[in-house]
Amino acid sequence: RDVPPADFIAAYATHLKNSDKFELPKWADIVKTGTHKELSPYDPDWYYTRAAAIARKIYLQPGLGVGGLRRKFGGSKNRGTRTFVFGKAAGGIIRTILQQLEEIQVVEQNEKGGRFISRVGQQDLDRIAG
């Protein structure tokens, strides 16, 4: 909470990129991040940035699941001449990132639903924030 979000997300994204445990999926360069987007992201490291942002969101709000994170990362959908409506983010991307974060033991599943930061993940995030 004490570190600016952009600085923390950039630092944790580089940490994830440099670690050998977190892999970039082969479909990451062609996929859109949500139904409200027209193109895939321009940044080649967007997957690591999204993973760092998801880890930060779960750190600040334990119990978030895929549906809650889809709402957090969604945005306004341009429908031409009609009014803008809210479009959720892609759930498959968020789900695979959460599964990879579980494999490296940053997050754990809650038996009541959602995810929370594990003890190893808490130490990892605190070390990078400090």
What does this molecule look like?
- Helix 2 crosses helix 4.
- This protein is mainly alpha-helical.
- The model has no long low-confidence stretch (mean pLDDT 91).
- Strand 3 and strand 4 form a beta hairpin.
- The chain has a two-stranded antiparallel ribbon with strand order 1-2. A two-stranded antiparallel ribbon has the order 3-4.
- The protein has five helices and four strands.
- It is globular.
Write the layout of secondary structure elements.
Layout: H1 5-18, H2 46-60, H3 66-72, E1 75-77, E2 85-87, H4 91-103, E3 107-109, E4 115-117, H5 119-129
Antiparallel strand pairs: 1-2, 3-4
Helix pairs in contact: 1-2, 2-4, 3-4
